[in-house]
């Protein structure tokens, strides 16, 4: 009886501290329009003709750029309804903005190629894409180098948008978000960012937000695979002193 009780107690304890099933970086989803590529996953939104979100792990060991940018944008054949294509963006005034950056995928040839799928692309104004958004992407790679592995989720915010480009009516997001999670034995921290799709002044931390607040905006449940108590604590606050280090 004692051994049975000890085993039961161990099972209860492990269920409280171990992640639930699922990829940590992915928001909760029902599998509809879900696509898993080699180095990232996404859920495609046919109405907006872009991903609702793109998620991936980023390892320090992947920060060695073995392959150059291809700059060859491709239709994603895994999008059964058909993804956007190059003609949608031509002469639109918008950059083909990566959600999972090509520079995060330079460690592997397939990962680099797939980063140019249109399912991973969203219309971004040049002043945004080449400005503060680029700075944040660079900072994310710095965090990966420091903390060995981080979890990244990025997406457009189209809730209030009415503007589109191209024959496929690609929705122009009003904002973009990115969330980053560090989850290991010693560190459990998250941070989110929300930017308007325009040239942004200030520094990236001026646009920092809790994961909880981003969940309210987009209606997604982040980090649901974590133990509930840890998920709640991680998502409700941002320790800017930690992230600024």
Essential attributes:
245 residues, alpha+beta, Extracellular Endonuclease, Chain A, seven-stranded antiparallel beta sheet, two-stranded antiparallel sheet, 24% strand
CATH class: Alpha Beta
The CATH architecture classification is: 3-Layer(aba) Sandwich
- And the CATH topology? Extracellular Endonuclease, Chain A
Q: What's the CATH H-level homologous superfamily?
A: Extracellular Endonuclease, subunit A
Instruction: Tell me the overall shape.
Output: globular
Total individual domains: 1
Structural class: alpha+beta
Mean pLDDT: 92
Output the radius of gyration. 19 Å
Counted beta strands:
11
What is the terminal-to-terminal distance? 51 Å
Largest sheet strand order: 1-2-3-6-9-10-11
Largest sheet: 7 strands, antiparallel
Tell me the strand percentage band. 15-25%
Please estimate the helix content: 25-40%
Provide the succession of SSEs.
HEEEHEHEHHEEEEEEHHH
* Uncertain stretches: 1-21
Helix segment tally: 8
